[in-house]
Specification:
The protein is of the alpha+beta class and about 160 residues long. It has a single domain, classed as Aminopeptidase. It is built from 4 helices and 6 strands. A 6-stranded mixed sheet has the order 1-2-3-4-5-6, with helices on both faces. α3 runs parallel beside α4. The termini are far apart. The site of coenzyme A has 21 residues, from β5, α3 and α4.
Length: about 160
Amino acid sequence: MARMTLATPRLRTARLRLRPFTDADADLLFALHSNTLVMRYWDSPPWTERARAERFITRCRKMANEGTGARVAIDRASDGTFVGWCSLSKWVPDHRSASLGYCLDEAMWGHGYATEAAHALLRWAFDTLGLNRVQAETDTRNVASARVLKRSDSCGKGLCGNNAS
Ligand SMILES: CC(C)(COP(=O)(O)OP(=O)(O)OC[C@H]1O[C@@H](n2cnc3c(N)ncnc32)[C@H](O)[C@@H]1OP(=O)(O)O)[C@@H](O)C(=O)NCCC(=O)NCCS
């Protein structure tokens, strides 16, 4: 059976705006993924070609068209500054499972933005997709990412769960 498309959501939190990527994001995305500090725990090397950013944006649209997930750009609400991105990928409707990922600009770390963005995306996924299981991988040295995941754990127990008020 053909999969349904999955419209990438626009979401708002207290301090952030989550939205679909556009071609205009390519330069900021390339800057983010070519930063060796940002990429130090990533499972692939920093980007060296801007074309990688264009491919990333194309892949975002493909995920939506094929209904396999949602990858959203994150902007700071107060001034529109690009913060990074957050994603739910590998969406499997039969298992109601998906994988969580995120990457934030170095200048934006330590403000709780990753936690806030992940919660918003998970809340959307629990409400819209009936998500049941979320997987994520992180390098064991990536303490900040482990904390984001730990705090996102609460999403499945009420904050973002199906029965959340
Ligand atoms: C991992 C990452 C997304 C965290 O983003 P962030 O917005 O700084 O995270 P938050 O501010 O929501 O902080 C989450 C927790 O980590 C803690 N933390 C943040 N930076 C930390 C650091 N360098 N060392 C230890 N703890 C840290 C925060 O204090 C917070 O803890 P708390 O939940 O106890 O309050 C960000 O560092 C990043 O994008 N890194 C590069 C890409 C990456 O590694 N992505 C994840 C791949 S699995």
